[in-house]
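Suppose a classmate hands you a notebook page containing two proteins, each written out with its sequence and a corresponding row of structure tokens. How would you begin to make sense of it? This section walks through that situation. The first entry is reproduced here exactly as it would appear on such a page.
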Amino acid sequence: MMKVVRVKDIIIGEGMPKIAVPIVGRNITEIIEEVKELKKIDFDIAEWRADFFENATDISKDIEVLEKIREIIPKRVILFTFRSFDEGGAREIDEELYFELNKRVSETKLVDIIDLELFKDHNKIRELIDSVHKNKLLVIISNHDFEKTPEKDEIVKRLCKAVELGADIPKIAVMPNSAEDVITLLDATRIAKEKYIKGPIITMSMTGKGIISRLSGELFGSAITFGSAKKASAPGQISVKELRKVLNILHTNM
């Protein structure tokens, strides 16, 4: 039996993929401007990419930013993500600080979902997930390959490992070097969804080559897709307006 994930008034894993929009401002002024713009946009999840923030390694300043974000969009789903440099993020962070930051953010309960990276220390991930779940928040465990698309079995394996570690939603994003790579990602998504993972998953093939993967989640099994408002946080993101339009067309005709 397939499971869904409920957060506020959003049901992830049912119907159209939910649209997440990244907030990527470099300072508090830019961040506030971006969040205010979100009020004009038809989206489901606001993702604060804290690694873009100039004071991102100062936990107290991160919390101040989250307080302002929550004040502007009090009823919306907020995803907190600090993407490390090796996973395509804007800056590096000491692993100890990475875990402390995510723990402290979860304790504030200013966010609804925390993104953790698959290739961090697994014992620390399990410990942090226990803490996050005690605060009644959800966890995405993610992996990003900006060089290639792994073999189909490896993609499925990484998604399953994320679930084994305790993820509510596993996520993988890969780089296509050919049309075949895109097909590999899509079929791996289908296999993971049909055979191994009962809950929602997130997958995507990046850049223009992989754009179909950001649109076809309802068919292949990816439950969240990322679209841009002002600035994209990863290669291949398209505007939320265009994304919503295509998702509606596909959903209506499926």
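The notebook's second entry, a different protein, reads as follows.
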Amino acid sequence: MNDPVKVQANPKQSYQSQITHTPNLFAQKFPDNGAPTGRRRGATSRRDGCPSLKTPVTALVPGQEKNNKSFLGLTVSEYPTFWVYLPELPTNLSSGEFVLQDEQGNDIYRTSLTLAAKVGIIGVSLPPKSEYALKQNSKYHWFFRVYCGEPKNKPEYFFVDAWLQRVALTPQLQQQLKTAKSQEYKVYGANNIWYDAITNLAQLRRTHSDVSTLAKDWTSLFKAVDLEELAQAPILQGYNSQN
């Protein structure tokens, strides 16, 4: 997976002693950044084209569905990772697609995905190539789709969509990250930089799955964006196509 900040591996015991749970770390909700809006909970492209799901496909982003709020989050990364919760899907639903567009609707990146038949959280990373690099202060629209049939034949699909904006990595933020060492997600969270907070913490949880303080902060992060019910889902594979 691509991560804005590389996490240095440490023996589990020593790492456990380095990190402390911060109960009020994500007590403040990530702010509503205004238009444009998106769809965090999965919808379908046609009314009856896809089967019913007990839990919807969900984009792991800040926002409030009931008030039609913005699903715009921030990143400092040129090549961020986008996170999605996959519910239990029928066995014949294994084709997915990720699309990133600029604010005018032009494709920046598009890739097909083969989805694992597992419930959990996946991350889709932009390949580290110059043509995909996000520009500072620009907004981008991303889509994640799960096809209900053959994508080439009048495709019907579940989908979510959200927005992100790349902001500058200021000297002050750089210093805070340096001081944080292997707990960068706390700095990102305190500065409302959603995409890097969840990516850094997800990577830490994958490499230090037995550290209870990370699990508590992960739950706090999800609670801060009203997705606490998904915090117990396992973190599955990451997708990082080089195409």
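A careful reader of the second entry would note: The two ends are 15 Å apart (CA to CA).
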